[in-house]
Design a protein that fits this description.
single chain, 306 residues, alpha+beta, Aminopeptidase, 12 helices
């Protein structure tokens, strides 16, 4: 799906794509671009994007299906009306100099056909532009939320819900016209349906070179109250298969994994294989490198099986 956003107040088109295993190289680029920047909003953008990826890897390994297209939602529901389905989408473009990926959104369909928002993040310099930033992008959060409501409409969901942050709750209250939003976002079908219609009309007006007050208003709200979601307290079980595979690797391959993750220097000669594995997991967790860890482990594990 193609969706409009703004680059320096000029209309541009970005595209929603369904993330798959090979689509996450942008995370390292975000991390390098952040460098030693310590602004919480930018740091959180990178950290929560990594957490969304880790969750994707964890649930994928544990058997939760992740769809690769809108038609798959319908197929799963038709096959099993109570099927839980995951989704991680990227908002991409070819015109933002800092990254081809503007943002990402991790959401899922619950067994009772509600849509649950887990993570919604944007590039760190979109979330909080630097003082001398030459490329100001607006509407990333709006575009991804619009897509989520499109999925909710197609699935005939009765509710979209998620956990708001101290910075985003006012956005959801105003945009969905809710009576109150604290830490819980609770958007019934009627509310997100009207939101969808308003935004679609506003974008159509802009496409026809008419001024859209609703889009301008929401872009202003997004600047003041970014709609980005995610919480580090949202703990999930790491992929048990990958942990088992790490434990089963020969010691010399565990050490190769440690070298890739740059934790080899912390391994002592008298450590047992289990202690080495535990140290690798602890260090990867602290450095937000769990996705890289599981990727390396599965790479070695497949070689051994082959």
């Amino acid at each position: 799906m193609n969706l409009p956003v703004k680059l320096n107040k000029q209309r541009q088109i970005a595209s929603i794509v369904f993330a798959e295993g090979h689509d996450f190289s942008f995370l390292e680029k975000w991390k390098k671009q952040l460098d030693k920047d310590t602004l919480p909003a930018r740091v959180d953008s990178v950290a929560f994007a990594h957490l969304a990826h880790s969750r994707y890897l964890s649930h994928s390994h544990e058997g939760t299906p992740y769809v690769t297209g809108t038609e798959e939602f319908k197929a799963y529901i038709n096959d099993n009306p109570k099927k839980e389905v995951g989704c991680l989408v990227l908002l991409t473009c070819n015109w933002f100099p800092d990254s081809d990926v503007l943002g990402l959104c991790h959401f899922r369909r619950s067994w009772c056909n509600h849509i649950v928002l887990d993570y919604l993040r944007a590039h760190p310099f979109i979330t909080a532009p630097t003082k001398n930033c030459r490329n100001i992008v607006n509407g990333v959060g709006l575009a991804m939320l619009f897509y989520v409501t499109e999925i909710a409409r197609q699935c005939k969901s009765k509710l979209i819900w998620g956990e708001a942050t101290q910075n985003s709750h006012k956005f959801y209250k105003k945009v969905f016209k809710l009576p109150s939003v604290k830490d819980l976002i609770y958007v019934p079908q009627a509310k997100f349906g009207r939101f969808y219609d308003r935004i679609k009309k506003g974008w159509n007006d802009e496409e026809n070179q008419k001024r859209s007050a609703i889009i301008e208003e929401i872009n202003e709200i997004e600047v003041e109250h970014p709609p980005f979601l995610g919480t580090k307290a949202n703990v999930f079980i790491p992929p048990r298969k990958s942990i088992q595979h790490l434990l089963e690797l020969p010691r010399h391959e565990k050490l190769q994994v440690a070298r890739v993750l740059k934790v080899y220097a912390k391994i002592k000669p008298d450590m047992t294989d289990t202690e080495v594995a535990k140290l690798i997991i602890q260090e990867a967790t602290e450095m937000n490198d769990l996705d890289k860890l599981w990727g390396e482990v599965e790479k070695h594990s497949k070689r051994n099986v082959g």
